[in-house]
Amino acid sequence: MGHRCVAGSTVQQTRLALARSESGFEALLIAVTGASGYIGAHCVAHALKREHAVIAISTQAVVTATSRVSNALRWQQVGNYADIDVAEWTERFLGASTVIHAAARVHRRRAQGDDEAMLRDNMQLTARAARAAAAARVRRFVFLSSAAVYGDAGNDAPFDEHSALNPQSAYARSKFAAEAVLREIANESSMQIVILRPPVVYGVNAPGNLSRLARAVLRGVPLPFARVDNQRSIVAVDTVASCAVWSAEAAAVDQSVSVWLPCDRQPISTKSMIEALARGMRVAPKLISVPKPLLSLGLRTVGAKRLALQLLEDWRLDGSALSRAGFEAQVDSEIGLELLGRSYNQA
Predict the structure, then answer these.
(1) Cα–Cα distance measured from residue 97 to residue 185, given in angstroms and rounded to the nearest whole number
(2) Average pLDDT, the chain
(3) Residue 20: is its pLDDT beyond 80?
(4) Which segments within the chain are labelled E, that is strand?
(5) Are residues 252 and 274 in the same domain?
(6) Do residues 336 and 198 share a domain?
(7) Which residue from 58, 227, 244, 303 puts its CA 20 to 30 A from 288's CA?
(8) CA dist., res. 195 & res. 186, Å (int)
(9) In sequence order, what are the residues at sequence separation of 6 or more whose Cβ sits closer than 8 angstroms to the Cβ of residue 92?
(10) Number of domains the chain is built from
(11) Claim to verify: residue 118 and residue 29 sit in the same structural domain
């Protein structure tokens, strides 16, 4: 299975040694699952930047190139997450004040996985990890869910923490099921649950459709979105990671279950996404004008209904509750995407 957890007494000593920095800021011991994944790795980096100690749990070998070597960082390589039972998770979490649970099976084509595997990895894994965290007396469990639980179609008003959920994909349904289990665990224990529902996440080397769109812009592919003036919420990966770490620290988290929607400050249109990426790449975007109804019909005709919704329709989040609680997103989508575009020139 790989390296076993550091003995509880050693972890407690680490936690006490880091209890306060010279500035008086309270340092925590934070366990991060999925620590070598895209969001998990950024959570590790942000926690270290905030001078916290980190137990980084991953199925991959330690990659020192992406995180600084530090006495405050302990890597634990495991085998298959599905094989880890509650007892082993409990041992690994001993001494931690917070668990950031970023381990998950993400969007995949059907040929690479099925609904059962998605449900197992995102619901059963989360349930075992959370029950173990409660048994280890972890104070707070931060779960990386997804705004996909709201469904693919937008509302007239932005979605907020109280909006009805309508998960459509296997991925979204598995996150929905995991959230339901976490609410049950919150009722059974004193551990606080924080659920983060980010929208589409972008950043350097991010997986997903935004990276595919960026590569199309770089190659000069003609894109038929000149008339698409929709409004969609997206989020920079650094915002998600800093929100997860803030959730570990924040005194504002005072409920048994809190739900937050980390997103960039303003929504953005598909056309503006392409233009921002192109500015960063220093290329002229090849936007062509196609009537939106015709474009929607064409995508739906070839079985790409979800893609049509994602590219053409409004889909917005209301992150104001998170702002009122004390966390402010620092990134505007246009600036963030322009910076992402610049990274393609440096590759």
Answers:
(1) 17
(2) 87
(3) no
(4) 29-33, 53-58, 73-77, 98-101, 140-144, 192-196, 200-202, 234-236, 257-260
(5) no
(6) no
(7) 303
(8) 12
(9) 5, 31, 55, 57, 76, 132
(10) 2
(11) yes
